[in-house]
Specification:
Layout: E1 3-9, E2 18-23, E3 26-30, H1 36-44, H2 54-59, H3 67-70, E4 76-80, H4 86-89, H5 92-95, E5 103-105, H6 107-119, E6 128-130, E7 136-138, E8 144-150, E9 157-164, E10 167-171, H7 189-197, E11 201-207, H8 220-233, E12 241-244, H9 250-262, E13 266-270, H10 272-283, E14 293-296, H11 299-311, E15 316-320, H12 330-335, E16 348-351, H13 361-373, E17 378-380, H14 391-401, E18 405-409, H15 413-416, H16 420-423, E19 442-445
Parallel strand pairs: 3-4, 4-5, 5-6, 10-11, 11-18, 12-15, 12-16, 13-14, 13-15, 16-17
Antiparallel strand pairs: 1-2, 1-19, 2-3, 7-8, 8-9, 9-10
Length: about 450
């Protein structure tokens, strides 16, 4: 029986992830995400994505091209999503509805998907199947899907094992090996090793985004200590504290709440995306942040609270959107004086994130920092550790699952080809058992 891996998105750019696995006359689709730079550029130009059709979103490069799937429409048996980040799940409402196939993902990812669709006024026609990690679901005659617990920079993340009569394909976009996660469980090393020991892993689609980093990615526990050092170690008496990070990073948010309590400050979450991701996690019982934080969504609420905080600036910690200096985010709107808060000399602004190195993020962040530093604030940058594994994590993944073939994923050749510094040493050669794909290309397993 023929098994084919088709790259549909995320192999010619960082983002827009989508991979199809064809087994005989059946197909499963792994991830279906946005290319966020295209969306941000469109929105900055005055557009609104709710008025764009799937074809329109494809035209601006914001969602994957599913022409291949459309030509095999009756063969698509399931969409499987690895986690809740927009570059993996965001395009589901615009693509999956064309196909008579369920969407399978962990409970948190499904809850976020429901929220995204509701906010964009898009109806998801597909059956949504919340599935816990550790589960195996038979989706068709020849394909079963297994969700394996993994850690990343959000919660309830899965690596995906696609079981076929010809062997197993393991998909790891995105992963890190975190033995001390602040929220959630450690990776399921036992199951990964079992797959490798069974000797039946035909291909490993390997998150190779950080293959140039000659290290093991630090645990979220390290980021917690970095944040602790800034929040509790830098003099902040009488000054405002504003923190921004990725809205879906539930572990980082927990640390912010914990250290704010030690400062005897009230916690306020500001911004729609923070509200969405937090409420989704609460709805599936993974966190309970509402008891410790005032979670604000609407502009009127935010404006009223900012006026209160300005008069009592050392009584609060504000956790807000704007980690990438998005134009409509709370911190950006304060920076350009669209929202009523005046930073003063030595107020603290903590970026518990990295700037994603693409335009327009880079230029937006530079502009925002210039606005803020002109007011004399203290800026604490890069209080963060990544959610992506580095080269030593990749080595561990390969050693555990023992694949016949490695397919580097999560970036174009320039980004992912750094994997060769490792794979050449352990016996994987380009063109032989290390195979690079680009969007629209495929690999048939022999």
């Amino acid at each position: 029986m023929n098994v084919e891996i088709i790259a549909l998105g995320g192999y010619s750019e960082v983002g827009k992830n989508m991979t199809a696995i064809k087994v005989g006359d059946e197909i499963v689709v792994l991830d279906c995400g946005f290319y966020l730079p295209s969306l941000v550029e469109f929105q900055e130009g005055g557009g609104n994505k709710k008025y764009l059709t799937p074809k329109g979103l494809q035209k601006i490069g914001a969602i994957p091209d599913d022409t291949y799937l459309e030509s095999n429409k009756d063969k698509v048996k399931a969409f499987v999503v690895s986690h809740a980040h927009l570059d993996h799940v965001g395009a589901i409402p615009y693509v999956a509805g064309k196909y008579n196939a369920p969407v399978i993902a962990t409970p948190y990812t499904i809850e976020v998907l429901r929220t995204l669709a509701r906010d964009d006024d898009v109806k998801i026609k597909n059956k949504l199947m919340p599935t816990k990690t550790g589960s195996i679901i038979k989706v068709s005659k020849n394909i079963s899907i297994e969700l394996i617990n993994m850690t990343h920079s959000t919660i309830d993340v899965a690596s995906i094992a696609v079981h076929t009569p010809e062997g197993v394909i393991v998909y790891t976009n995105d992963f890190k090996f975190d033995n001390h996660p602040v929220v959630g469980k450690k990776p399921d090393y036992k199951r990964l090793k079992e797959l490798g020991d069974e000797g039946n892993v035909r291909a490993l689609i390997l998150d190779s985004l950080y293959s140039a980093k000659g290290m093991k990615t630090p645990s979220e526990k390290v980021a917690r200590e970095l944040l602790k050092d800034v929040m509790l170690g830098a003099e902040n008496k009488g000054h405002a504290i504003f923190i921004t990070s990725f809205a879906s990073h539930m572990a980082r948010l927990k640390s912010m709440i914990d250290f704010a309590k030690k400062l005897d400050r009230k916690v306020v979450f500001m911004g729609r995306s923070l509200s969405k991701y937090t409420k989704a996690a609460e709805n599936v019982g993974l966190v309970d942040y509402s008891k410790d934080a005032n979670i604000l969504t609407y502009s009127r609420q935010v404006q009223k609270m900012l006026k209160t905080i300005e008069k009592n600036r050392d009584k609060y910690v504000v956790v807000c959107t704007g980690s990438q200096a998005e134009p409509n985010a709370i911190l950006s709107r304060i920076g350009n004086k669209q929202l009523p808060f005046n930073f003063v000399h030595d107020d603290h602004i903590i970026f518990s994130c990295k700037t994603i190195p693409v335009e327009p993020n880079i230029s937006n962040r530079e502009k925002l920092e210039k606005q803020l530093t002109s007011r004399g604030v203290r800026i604490f940058r890069d209080i963060h550790v990544s959610g992506h594994g580095s080269i030593e994590d990749m080595r561990d993944m390969i050693d555990m699952v023992k694949p016949e073939i490695i397919i580097p994923g999560h970036g174009d050749y320039k980004v992912v080809s750094n994997i060769e510094q490792l794979t050449d040493v352990i016996g994987y050669k380009p063109g032989k058992n290390l195979i690079y794909l680009t969007n629209g290309k495929s690999l048939k397993l022999k």
